[in-house]
C-alpha cells in the first residue's frame, strides 16, 4: 500500500527541466568583450579602416574626374594647332582641368623647339600627373597588408591572456575564465582580415582606374606628336 501511494504521488508530479538560455552578443558587446588589449587593437584597426575608406573615396572621385576625356576637345586643339593658332589652343587646354589637357598644353608651349625636346616635356609632365593620380595609393596598399598582421597580433595577445588565466587558476580552470582572451583572439582576427580585404579590393580598383587614365594620356600624347611630325 505504501508503495502504491508513493508511486501515485510520483506519477502525478511533473518534472521541470530548465532550458538553457541562449545569449546573443551585439557587435558593440563583441568588440568590447576582449578587454583592454582587444580594445586597443580594435581602435587601431578602426583608424586604419577610416583612413582606407577616405583614401578610396577621395582618389576614386579624383581619378574619375581626371579620366573624363572629351574627344571633341582633342579634335578642337588639334585643329587650332594645325591652323597655327597656338594661343587659342593653349587657352583651350588651360580651361580644362585634366592630365591630358596639361600634357598637351606643355607640348604647345614648346612648339618651335626640336621634337625631341617637345616629347621630353610632355613625358615629364605625364610622369608628374601619374604621381598625382597615385597619391596615397601606397598607404592604402600598406593598410591592406598591415591590418591582418595587426589582427593576428590581437590573436597572440588574446591567447597569452587565456594561458595566463589558466596558469593563475592552477587546477581549477573554468571556461568563463578563458572567455576574455578567446574573445580578444577571435574578434581582432576577424576585424583585421575585414579591414585588409576591403583595403586590398579598394587598392586594386584604384590601380585599374589609374591605368586607364595613363593609357588615355599615352594615346593623346602620341596623337599630338603625330600632328607635329606631319607639320614638319
TrEMBL record:
The question of whether Ribonucleoprotein is a record keyword is answered with: no
Gene Ontology terms, cellular component aspect? Answer: plasma membrane
| GO BP terms, alphabetized | protein import
Q: Which residues form a coiled coil?
A: none
Q: Which InterPro entries match?
A: ExbB/TolQ_transport (IPR050790), MotA_ExbB_proton_chnl (IPR002898)
Pfam families in the record: MotA_ExbB
Q: Which family does it belong to?
A: Belongs to the exbB/tolQ family.
Q: What is this protein called?
A: Outer membrane transport energization protein ExbB
Q: What's the source species' lineage?
A: Bacteria, Pseudomonadati, Bacteroidota, Flavobacteriia, Flavobacteriales
Amino acid at each position: 500500500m505504501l508503495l502504491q501511494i508513493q508511486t501515485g504521488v510520483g506519477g502525478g508530479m511533473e518534472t521541470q527541466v530548465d532550458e538553457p538560455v541562449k545569449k546573443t552578443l551585439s557587435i558593440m558587446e563583441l568588440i568590447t568583450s576582449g578587454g583592454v588589449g582587444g580594445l586597443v587593437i580594435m581602435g587601431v584597426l578602426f583608424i586604419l579602416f577610416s583612413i582606407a575608406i577616405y583614401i578610396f573615396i577621395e582618389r576614386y572621385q579624383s581619378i574619375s574626374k581626371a579620366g573624363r576625356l572629351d574627344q571633341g576637345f582633342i579634335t578642337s586643339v588639334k585643329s587650332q594647332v594645325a591652323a597655327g593658332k597656338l594661343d587659342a589652343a593653349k587657352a583651350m587646354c588651360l580651361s580644362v582641368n585634366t592630365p591630358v589637357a596639361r600634357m598637351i598644353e606643355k607640348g604647345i608651349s614648346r612648339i618651335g623647339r626640336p621634337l625631341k625636346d617637345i616629347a621630353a616635356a610632355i613625358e615629364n609632365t605625364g610622369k608628374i600627373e601619374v604621381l598625382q593620380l597615385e597619391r596615397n595609393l601606397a598607404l592604402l596598399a600598406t593598410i591592406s597588408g598591415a591590418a591582418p598582421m595587426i589582427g593576428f597580433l590581437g590573436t597572440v595577445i588574446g591567447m597569452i591572456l587565456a594561458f595566463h588565466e589558466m596558469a593563475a587558476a592552477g587546477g581549477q580552470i573554468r571556461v568563463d575564465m578563458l572567455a576574455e582572451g578567446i574573445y580578444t583572439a577571435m574578434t581582432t582576427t576577424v576585424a583585421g582580415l575585414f579591414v585588409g580585404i576591403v583595403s586590398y579590393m579598394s587598392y586594386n580598383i584604384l590601380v585599374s582606374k589609374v591605368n586607364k587614365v595613363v593609357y588615355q594620356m599615352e594615346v593623346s600624347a602620341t596623337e599630338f606628336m603625330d600632328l607635329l611630325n606631319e607639320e614638319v
